[in-house]
Amino acid sequence: MNTSQGMLAYSSIGPSDSLEKIVLLHGFTQAKELWHSTASLLANDLAGRAPHIISVDLPGHGGSSAQEVNLWQAAQQIVELCGEATYIGYSLGARIALHCALQSPNSVKRLVLCGATPGLRSNEEREARRVADENIAQNIEQTPLAEFLNTWTRQAIFDGYVPDETDISIRLKNNPSGLAQSLRKMGTGTQEDLWNRLSELSMPVLLVTGDDDHKFSNIAVEMKALIGPAAQHAHIPQCGHSVPFQKPAEFCSVVSQFILLR
How many domains is the chain partitioned into structurally? Predict the structure, then answer.
């Protein structure tokens, strides 16, 4: 679908006129197809509500166009496409979902953030990260994508999750230039410090982290305190950063309960 910022590809399951709409936003180097199991599990868990579940290819990923859009612009076009819904994001998708909630709070019925950060707190940290992100972007442009993904997916942060052939085949359909542009415009180094804006979130918020992902678990604890009573934090045992893909059934269970109760 064409939006004001560019073309976004998406897939969906469930009745389009459902009152329970759910939007799934993937992580960096991923694509909408990786949400297939999650969407099916959520549809089953929430069968009584017959949800309409939309999986979106983020800018520069999958079938979406490679665009020079920042996180706010990406959030704007995703809300333009999906409208009022429960927004669920993982990693890069979680950072975009947070921007959706802050920019268009009336469109975000509930917010689920998995492996999210509100940004780096100092200019020095952001500048160092921008330099690191630029180096990675150049590596993506200069290295065969399969070779880059082999290195990327074996980072310590992803310990506990080994992508299978289907996962890798989906990632290999991405355009390297789109991934590089995405990192330059939407990487953590370019993200504003949003810590002092978390108190603006009034919709129900679920923060999900794996118990083995100590960095993002600690971030979630801080986020919950700053958001206040609207937020809750779910811990997934024996799981790292890649919660929706390492432990899909457990992830969908806590998300479904959150939707049913909030």
Answer: 1
